[in-house]
Write a structure and sequence with these properties.
mainly alpha; flat
């Protein structure tokens, strides 16, 4: 529709970021670095565009180069898991401080 792969990646990455905005709006500062305790809606939307859309762009480029959906799932899971692993283990008292 856009007749440009890069335009499609940019549009998809913006949508990827915006889809995450409600989650950022409802989270507390303890679960998301860079946001206040109860972020304003505009802050959550801005954060999702600036931070999460960049990740969406990387995922889009990765998809355009490999066409490997499983690779995207693994990279996305790793990006979510590794930064949150230790706090999650602490929350469930599975890891001593």
């Amino acid at each position: 529709m856009l007749k440009s792969e890069i335009a499609g990646i940019v549009l998809a990455s913006l949508l990827f970021g915006l889809v995450h905005a409600p989650g950022f709006y409802r989270r507390t500062a303890m679960t998301q670095e860079g946001l206040s305790t109860h972020p304003a809606l505009w802050m959550a939307v801005g954060y999702s565009i600036v931070i999460t859309s960049v990740a969406g762009f990387v995922f889009g480029v990765l998809w355009s180069r490999t066409r490997n959906f499983l690779l995207l799932v693994v990279v996305h899971a790793a990006a979510e898991l590794f930064p949150n692993l230790v706090p999650t283990l602490h929350a469930f008292h599975l890891f001593a401080r």
